[in-house]
Amino acid sequence: MPAGGRKKDPMAMSRVKKLFRLKVWGAVVLGLMLTATTTPSAAQQPTTGGVRGRVRVGAGTPEGVNVTVRQGEREVREARTNAKGEFEVAGLAPGNYGLVFRKPGVQVGRMTVEIKAGKVLSLPKDKLFLPVDEGAIAFIRGSVFDATGRGFAGAKVELELKREDGTYKKMDDRVTNGLGQFAFRMTPEPARYRVTAKADGMEPATAEVAVDSAAIFRVGLTLERRK
Prior knowledge:
The chain is mainly beta. It folds into 2 domains: 48-130, Immunoglobulin-like (Sandwich); 137-225, Immunoglobulins (Immunoglobulin-like), CATH 2.60.40. Helices cover 13% and strands 45% of the residues. The protein is elongated.
């Protein structure tokens, strides 16, 4: 019998040991939870970045500009601009890259960017302009006449692109010079255009032009007096 004459209770000792173990395990679990919430794992850290921008062109539409992303001599990504000239390339490892912008009818554009993990670099608009390549451009040149065959000065001439569904999208307009002449320039990829001449008191005159290369396409339009 222990000192003091009191006998140890085995059941009570067992409960004390269990309670002690529960407290220890609780402290361990709480510590792990706090660590998980305050220290992000490596898997949560972003490892790639991207680049986006908006391209403007000197002729035609900004849609369909090919954007090639290069690292050294290796092409790592490729994208195309949408109808607004916008593009975005994601999934790039941190580092320096060269961007090359190409579309028929405009000059090739080049620039170097630095990509950082977890960041999407937005390119300034003033650095994404592709001027016309005069040696690879298509022209629609024409004249507007009156009923006597004389050049009609001051007529408004509209250029529309024919879409695949048969509808038309306005691209540009001009006013004829003193000789009744006008000219439009566009990129040389195959497309069909509608040219319409208008003037007060005259019936509109329309012609369709199929562009398929870097060349000059000519059209003549005659305005008749409205009856």
